[in-house]
Amino acid sequence: MSSASPQRARERRTIARNKRATHEYLVLDELETGIVLFGTEVKSLRAGRVSLQEAYCMIRNGELWLMQMHIPEYAQGNIHNHKMVRERKLLAKRQQINKWDRKVREKGVTLIPLEILWDGSFVKLRIGLCKGKKIYDKRQSKRERDDKREIARTAKSGRYDSN
């Protein structure tokens, strides 16, 4: 038997979610990418300080970029601290970027960051290929969410009404 310990599964923890994205957009497809960050940005993320509300993604020159994500400056940083809002490169396979680039060129389809998370010691970003919802779609989504919540509440309480 070897004395090496078995590898543990990497822990996955959510840092922040873009809750508004699922309300405003219909998510057609998802992709998990890596993200290029500075050291002080990673330290701010460890403190859970990030905002995805204004963020969006774009494909430029065959590369995937994250725009307008707000990571506050690291409090204990020095003069080499990072800018709070800057363009950040996303790491994905060229084939996947080209596939999504063709879809983004369609009318009404955009790339929206959905969630930023820890994958072991790495920071990952889940982005979605999204299409804007109409008002009636938003109402339908809210109705379905409320119905699921009501069913769960009824099942949990153990009382079933049979009319």
From TrEMBL:
Subcellular location: Cytoplasm
Pfam families per UniProt: SmpB (PF01668)
Broad class of where this protein is predominantly found: cytoplasm
InterPro entries xrefs: SmpB (IPR023620), SsrA-bd_prot (IPR000037), SsrA-bd_prot_CS (IPR020081)
Keywords carried by this UniProt record: Cytoplasm, RNA-binding
GO biological-process terms attached to the record: trans-translation; trans-translation-dependent protein tagging
One function term, GO molecular function aspect: RNA binding
One Gene Ontology CC term in the entry: cytosol
Region called Disordered, residue ranges: 138-163
Family: Belongs to the SmpB family.
Functional note: Required for rescue of stalled ribosomes mediated by trans-translation. Binds to transfer-messenger RNA (tmRNA), required for stable association of tmRNA with ribosomes. tmRNA and SmpB together mimic tRNA shape, replacing the anticodon stem-loop with SmpB. tmRNA is encoded by the ssrA gene; the 2 termini fold to resemble tRNA(Ala) and it encodes a 'tag peptide', a short internal open reading frame. During trans-translation Ala-aminoacylated tmRNA acts like a tRNA, entering the A-site of stalled ribosomes, displacing the stalled mRNA.
Protein's name in the database: SsrA-binding protein
Gene: smpB
